[in-house]
Amino acid sequence: MGIPRQRGFWLRCFLGTATVLAAAWLLPCEVSDAQPDVPRPIHLVHLKGVVVNPKGEPVQNADVSLLRGDRVAYSTHTDGAGQFVFEHVDGHFQFRVKTTNYSVAARDVVVEFEISALRRNTLYVILGPGACSDDCSSVFTKKSQFDQTIRRNTKHSY
Q1: Which of 8, 50, 132, 158 is deepest in the core (most CB within 10 A)?
Q2: pTM summary value
Q3: 52 in helix, strand or coil?
Q4: Got the DSSP string for 93-112?
Q5: Structural domain boundaries of the chain?
Q6: Which of 44, 49, 109 is nearest to 78 (CA)?
Q7: Each residue of 2-25: pLDDT tens digit?
Q8: Coil, strand or helix: which one is 20?
Q9: What kind of fold does domain 42-156 have according to CATH?
Q10: How far is residue 26's CA from residue 31's CA, in Å, rounded to a whole number?
């Protein structure tokens, strides 16, 4: 009577372990099919902003464009303080900031006239190092997040 119970115990242990290992092996396979997290478009009433490098220093003369498809619909450049503004713009665009020595920053934006005062109006752009992809640059709508990122970047710089 002891031997059949012992076999049942070992069989349950084996099946339990095999089940756990199979689940651990299959779980990453299912996760790999997940869709990437794509940021939603930023909705704005007026399109203005500031462009800085990772240390928070203004980036002068950066090319700031609004694209529809592959065509540039509107374009401007940053001034000496890294600021830009688009007047009388309306529609869905890909916002893009591009300059030498830094990576490109891009984000989908929707500019629309609306009376709501709750809409964000300023974009804060931090360009990453030039050898980096678009993932190194950041576009913020909240000054607090922008300031926090600059503090973190300057804290770790040498």
Answers
A1: 50
A2: 0.69
A3: strand
A4: EEEEEE-TTB--EEEEEEE-
A5: 1-34, 42-156
A6: 49
A7: 555 555 666 565 656 655 555 555
A8: helix
A9: Immunoglobulin-like (2.60.40)
A10: 9
